[in-house]
Amino acid sequence: MTVNTGLIVLHTTKFGENSIVVHTLSKEYGRRSFLVRGLGKKSVMSLFLPLNMLEADIVETNKSTLFTARNVVARHPLLGIRNNMFKNSMTMFMSEVLYRVVKDGASEPGLYEWCEKSILMLDAIRTDFSNFHIRFLLELAVVLGFSPESKDLRPFVGNHYPTVERFMQIPFAESMLIPLNGAVRNEIAEEILRYIEFHTESAVNINSLKVLRELFA
């Protein structure tokens, strides 16, 4: 059976000489990995950058749990992200968080739609997006069902509690304008990740957070 579906790229793993395993989110399959064969050109690999939004035909088989993705094409060009070094780094962080937090095989209701909306929003923003990853983490906690109130985060965020509470009380556009330096953003992001770790009962080691710390100093 073949199913046409939209995919959000979280991570890729090389598989043989000219194939990869693409770790994705989709509405139909949740968090799942698919085999993509016949790759060779670097231009083709640009399809599979972090958080790229794709469309593919998934070939299901009872011979393996690793289904094959064929006829893979981009659904949105995301030029606002790909032409901006800072936004590219932001997508590296966001995709790594999703890859490590959402377990393989999980299907969280509404997660795919929320991710799609978040990616398109980041793509469209022209200025003032340095706080985007903080808002992303807070909203992710809600989508995953933790539904934190500000008081729930107090044990994790310490002295940053007033700032985090403000993030949770004001609209998205206003939260992008909260004045923070790179060090404070990094500390708040790490603290919210600890909250997510607590609820998922697993360690979440996000390497790309170091890149954001340097870029948004």
The proportion of residues forming helix, as a percent range, comes to 40-55%
Largest sheet: 5 strands, antiparallel
The H-and-E topology, N to C, reads as EEEHEEHHHHHHHHH
Query: What is the count of DSSP helices, taking H or I runs of 4+ residues?
Result: 10
Share of residues in strands: 15-25%
Catalogue the unreliable spans: none
Tell me the Rg in angstroms.
18 Å
Set out the fold topology.
Layout: E1 2-15, E2 19-26, E3 30-36, H1 42-45, E4 53-59, E5 68-74, H2 79-82, H3 85-101, H4 111-124, H5 132-143, H6 150-157, H7 161-169, H8 172-175, H9 182-200, H10 209-215
Antiparallel strand pairs: 1-2, 1-4, 2-3, 4-5
Task: Explain what you see.
With 217 residues, the protein is an alpha+beta fold. It folds into 2 domains: 2-74, Nucleic acid-binding proteins (OB fold (Dihydrolipoamide Acetyltransferase, E2P)); 79-215, no CATH class. Helices cover 45% and strands 20% of the residues. It has helices spanning 42-45, 79-82, 85-101, 111-124, 132-143, 150-157, 161-169, 172-175, 182-200, 209-215; strands at 2-15, 19-26, 30-36, 53-59, 68-74. The protein has a 5-stranded antiparallel beta sheet. Strand 4 and strand 5 form a beta hairpin. The protein starts with a strand and ends with a helix. The model has no long low-confidence stretch (mean pLDDT 91).
